[in-house]
Amino acid sequence: MSPVHHKDSEVVLERLFFNNRLFVLIVFALVTVFLGYKMTQVKPETSFMKMIPTEHPFIQNMLNNKDDLENLGNSIRISVEAKQGDIFSADYMAVLQKITDDVFYLPGVSRAGLKSLWTPNVRWIEVTEDGFEGGPVIPQSYDGTEDSLSLLRENILKSGQIGRLVANDFKSSIIEVPLFDKNPETGAALDYEALSKALEQQIRQRYNSDLVDIKIIGFAKKVGDLIEGIGSIAYFFAIAIGITLILLLIYSGCLKSAIIPLICSVIAVVWQLGLLSCFGYGLDPYSVLVPFLVFAIGISHGVQMVNSMGIESSLGADRLTAARRTFRGLYIPGMLALVSDAIGFLTLWVIEIDVIRDLAVAAGIGVAVIIFTNLFLLPILLSYVGVSQRAIRKVQKNRERKTRSWELLSYFSHPVVAPISIVLAIVGFSLGLYWSKDLKIGDLDPGAPELHPDSRYNLDNAFITRNYSTSADVLVTMVETPKEQCSSYATMSAIDQYMWRMENVPGVQSAVSLVTVSKLYIKGTNEGNPKWQTLARNPYVLNASIAQASQLFNTDCSLAPVLVFLDDHKAETLDRVVKATEAFAAEYNSTELQFKLAAGNGGIEAATNQVIESAQDKMLLWVYGVVSILCLLTFRSLRAVVCIIIPLALTSVLCQALMAWLGIGVKVATLPVIALGVGIGVDYGIYIYSRLESFLRQGKNLQEAYYATLRTTGKAVSFTGVTLAIGVGTWIWSPIKFQADMGILLTFMFLWNMFGALWLLPALARFFVRPERLSTVITVNTQQTTDSKKAVA
Fold it and tell me: pLDDT at residue 10 above 80?
């Protein structure tokens, strides 16, 4: 974009907005009222399908077979613990029956798949002299007497449910509750917030007593707890607004200068949320943090406007003239920074997970509205209210005296200091790359890493993991065959070999399939002799042996899932199981037999990890590529691109090293942080470089130009960086761990992006920017030169 085009666009927009100020304010007010109303209709929402990479081959395999798979990964487990004694008491069993009945009628529950000691699909089987005998674990004759409880104990021992539905110590039992992603009664997406509240109010609160203690885990409960924690975000947002207002008052010395950018930034948030409602979007537990980022970006640009307004007013300009000059001087760098932010956020769209794509849309819309609220509305409001005389005197006083701190910082551009800074940056890059090699993909902790280790959910998960042999983490491998061939000896033998290999993979507890049932049946028909616990080659025997395993193959016997129970869902555990499965599939797969990954929560996590791992570098390339191209189009200089981008890249590398050091994995919650940090951080570099370039064109040497830049734009950048870091730093005390992690990372990126712009950018300019060349780049006319001297970027 040439300077002439810059000039033309500035003149047209300046006249359009400032010559029609009252009309513009009326339009802004009407739009704000309308979008404010729409904002009230935005509700927290989430969906199981939005949280998973639906385009990944694993998930495609799962969805293609969803009608034949019982465990898609979307289920909850309710543990009912007997506080005194064990589960073999009439009172305990009566409470368990009531809980099972209540859970049965909760919205979204797959009632056919519900499992409890009280459901008829939990059965026992044994071999007797007369053949096989079996029945429901709790017989119809159960009446709570000692004899019936004794019979119940025997049935449980024969059912094979110890360690699965019944705890190893017999002091608790599980209710397994598979869920639909849509409420079958209404057809609407399952409301996880409502379901979580129902579980709390109708199950935990109703039945927790001196007799039993209720513990609940599962995807739906985890999301419900995250949504519950969202309420605290409003408090952090209010705290951030309060902190920002106080610091703005201290910085500007003017109440009007503090309130106006605050109001415009809040209006930007209102517009963003209103537009999300208009487009049919809601706020999930991950994108709910975006409004604060929109507010932060708005404050960043608002401070630049207020700073420039004060300087222009101190030079004797009236309110309207000062506002017009402020707009004229900041329109180009502000527009560049915001467009870079918006497009940079939209690059998150390359990640094939809908919840991240929704976050990209929310952030992109938020930044787009800042163009209107903070680049156009804010200077128009300032043209009416101006700045106080006290603020003007403060600016004049600062201009008349030399500031020792800015003078010292200007030495970052000195010919002697600049090379030292470059060397330190190279060392920082090297150390960051070395430390970031330990950065892991996926979850690094058991339970729900999005929540704190001492959260109710993670304590419940720890209890169930500790007391049951069967983990809540399951990876399901789908074995596909032609119709009626899943019980052939060749298929069953291959499944048997696969199970044996899986059970020897570190991190695997056990594996279950129709082979498990077949072996038990064959052993049972041979007087229970363990030597006969093997597969028979006779097809009639095999077909008969799987009659009781109907849940472990589909109706036409073309699909037989293998359930692999894992110690946890850590990234390295999932990676080992996936690689072992893929190696086995490469050896055994044929046109007649296919081992396909993967369902269950473990399979979904593995697919998510792979998508994130492949998208991480792609996302960074897109973010930096887009920002670099926009900087190149605006400044028409590769040297400018280098000066702006390298400090950002250093911050990204150091942020990854910090994540590795803190044990924060790259996952759905943390992957967008780096892109968001780059998007916000590029503002600093653009404003600094734009202002530095304008002073260089006036004939100043580099150190003089940088000193002048620090006294104007640099002052605003440093204030913004510190203010936003303090505001987002309050997230560290959030009850939601992933928000606390984001608080740590964004605080680090805000500060380092600010520091990089103030420290490394002038050092790079010493080597890449030639002041003598700038004088030949732009010479439009005398008036433009005058305006350039007065504009504050």
Answer: no
For residue 283, what are the contacts with CB-CB under 8 A and spacing of at least 6?
42, 43, 44, 45, 230, 273, 276, 290, 362
| Domain presence at residue 55 | no
Exposed, middle or buried, 328 (CB in 10 Å: 0-12/13-18/19+)? buried
Task: Name the token pair of 275.
Answer: 């537009």
From 305-309, 651-655, 774-778, the region with the lowest mean pLDDT: 774-778
**pLDDT given at position 178:** 86
Cα separation, 736 vs 340, in Å, equals 30
Task: Summarize the confidence of residues 339-357 as an average pLDDT.
Answer: 80
Sign for the pseudo-dihedral over CA of 337, 339, 345, 351: negative
- What percent of the chain shows pLDDT beyond 90? 14
Residue with tokens 């994130």: 612
Q: For the chain, give the mean pLDDT.
A: 82
Indicate which CATH number applies to the domain containing 341.
Answer: 1.20.1640.10
Q: What H or E segment, with its residue span, contains residue 623?
A: helix 600-635
Question: Within this chain, do residues 142 and 177 fall inside the same structural domain, yes or no?
Answer: yes
Order of strands, edge to edge, in the sheet holding 212-218? Answer: 172-178, 75-82, 212-218
Q: Are 443 and 570 in contact (CB under 8 A)?
A: yes
The first and second tokens of residue 25, run together, are: 């304010």
Q: How far apart are the first and last CA of the chain?
A: 17
Q: Is 442 contained in some domain? A: no
- Going from the C-alpha of 660 to that of each of 47, 411, 438, 443, 665, the distances in angstroms are 30, 34, 6, 12, 7
Same structural domain for residues 98 and 197? yes
Backbone angles phi, psi at 480, to 5 degrees: -105, 140
Q: 220 with 96, same domain?
A: yes
54, part of any domain: no
Which positions ≥6 away from 326 have C-beta within 8 Å? 305, 308, 309, 312, 379, 382, 792
* Residue 340, domain member (yes or no): yes
Confidence band of 505 (pLDDT split at 50, 70, 90): very high
The residues pairing with 478 across neighbouring beta strands, listed in sequence order, are 561, 596
Domain range spanning residue 371?
A: 1-40+253-401
Q: Give the global pTM.
A: 0.78
Give 775's pLDDT tier (boundaries 50, 70, 90). very low
- Taking residues 119-142, report their average pLDDT: 79
73 — pLDDT class (breaks 50, 70, 90): low
Check whether 133 has a pLDDT greater than 50: yes
